[in-house]
């Protein structure tokens, strides 16, 4: 078995070899450009039940090698991932479903993980965040309460990450979220992906330049993230970088000409830059696509008002209210 992943400024290559009844797992860290070997970590798993211990040890060693921070000792009491191999596999499937935005699959997988290990705090936490995002408030509160009952099972890294996301997305407290994210990145600089969440929190704080900077740093590693490119279009427009906003929107539209969210961001950037004809045409495309038709109508009304035209909006026609002068 062989695969490669890019994490921070390191490419990870892994091999698994059969040695009798055991498995030899080797992970190598390489420089992305030169392919020079930075480190090699190896461990031997004696059977299926021993595999979780080995994977945990390898993960901590890799993170130590990457960010030079003190990795959490997974053998300390209260910091065990899960004792159930079935639960661990269900957890891995859940994370994969989340990465692919398959929410229902992720929820089902985390529930399966919990069914096989009722003390699996991380599974409760991920499940809670998805339930909240799905509008299942009561279920989310119950899952989060159970996650907090088992918070001692979280590594420091996971605790800071999840509490930050919880405060940002569920509590709406971006200031508190930024405190957790700041501590996480100080202690674990390799957590590059969390910078997407730092950018969202900075945007909520109306610090648009900071949002752009953090999103940029994460996109250097996760350049294929279309959702983040869409958010970058919004961050850049609010930060006054209209050229960047337009280029991100156009990049997404080149991949998918029917991407209504990218159409809308491009029209907004055109309007902000005084390209009123282009903006109006963009809003017409958005209206025709339908997903953001109401926003497109509002945008066209704003442009007409700006041009000093008299018009009735579709809503104003109902109450005979003139909205332009």
Silhouette? globular
Q: What's the rounded overall pLDDT mean?
A: 82
Helix content: 55-70%
Amino-to-carboxy terminus distance:
69 Å
What's the total count of β strands? 4
Spatial extent as radius of gyration: 24 Å
Note the main sheet.
Answer: 4 strands, antiparallel
Strand content: 5-15%
Q: Structural class per helix/strand content? A: alpha+beta
Uncertain segments: 1-8, 67-79, 310-325
Topology order in helix (H) and strand (E) letters: EEEEHHHHHHHHHHHHHHH
Could you give the order of strands across the largest sheet?
1-2-3-4
Number of helices: 15
Description:
The protein is an alpha+beta fold. It has 15 helices and 4 strands. It has helices spanning 48-67, 85-99, 103-116, 121-133, 137-149, 156-170, 174-187, 195-204, 208-219, 226-239, 242-255, 260-272, 276-289, 293-306, 314-319; strands at residues 2-7, 10-19, 22-30, 37-45. It has a 4-stranded antiparallel beta sheet, covered by helices on one side. Helix 12 (260-272) packs antiparallel against helix 13 (276-289). The chain starts with a strand and ends in a 6-residue tail after the last helix. Residues 1-8, 67-79 and 310-325 have low confidence and may be disordered.
